[in-house]
Amino acid sequence: MHTGWSGKKCYISEVMGKPSFIEGKIMDEVLSILCKSMNDEISIEHMKGREYREYIELWVHEIKTPISAAMLTCENNGYTDVLHELHRIGGYVEQALFYARSSSVEKDYIIKQIDLKKLIGDLLKKNAAFLISNKIKVVPKAEGKVYSDSKWLMFILQQLIDNAVKYNAKTLYFTYIDRTLTVEDDGIGIPPQDLPRIFDRGFTGENGRINDKSTGMGLYLCKELCKKLGLKISASSQNGVEFSIVFPENPYVTFS
Asked: Which of 33, 173, 210, 256 falls 20 to 30 Å from 11 in CA-CA distance?
């Protein structure tokens, strides 16, 4: 018996005992044929999914080059409005890439100890022109070591920065206490009735509909990636929004 197969109906012929009577043998043969056909179909779908993810990754890497070139041109010539729109395009491209990869995080990660101060510094450096053009002050007080994958964590924090800018924040705070990284802004906040659903796939909420800038995918991806990385993310809203990410005590993470 193959471990993990008992809950999948397409493997029923693999886990059943072989019958000794003629009617049972006929039924067993029929089930084997049906299960093989189903497994072949599943394999084809898996292959299609893998090919699609590979195409998305290739497309993203190709499109990043002209976007980066255009952003550099805008920075050098002071085209702040165009730079802002290019940053949004770049964000959506990143979302597409990470969404395509999100179903197989466990195959594309390296859990190790991360210096939060350095990681956040690199993230802010990458976003410097974007934050300056939107007149956002950043207070980075997060210092400490955490266990995670730096690439996926950078993506999660990027979504929180984009959210702060999108909803009119003027100050962004990063703090780290007792294995909890807090990202807080002083933007327009989240209505109480929307707060329980902000991590739902495709949910934009009242503010997202008013501003017409939200896809409802950024926070959904944050939640999904945090679950797979063994992190816990939550949000509260009083004056602005406060996101909290709790890290594990050690690198031995169990993926869901």
From this structure: 256
For residues 131 and 75, give the distance between their C-alpha atoms in angstroms, rounded to a whole number: 12
State the DSSP code for 179.
T
| Residue 246 CB burial class (10 angstroms; 0-12, 13-18, ≥19) | middle
* DSSP 3-state percent helix, strand, coil across the chain (nearest 5): 55, 15, 30
Q: Which residue, 175, 138, 154, is CA-closest to 91?
A: 154
Structure tokens at 76: 């050098």
Rg over alpha carbons for the chain, rounded to the nearest Å, is: 23
Q: What angle do CA 71, 74, 75 make, to 5 degrees?
A: 85
- Asked if 178 contacts 204 with a C-beta cutoff of 8 angstroms, the reply is no
Q: How far is CA 90 from CA 86, 130, 133, 237, in A?
A: 6, 12, 16, 27
Question: How many residues are there in the chain?
Answer: 256
**What would the pLDDT profile of 79-125 be if each residue is shown by its tens digit?**
888 887 888 888 888 888 887 777 666 666 788 899 999 999 999 99
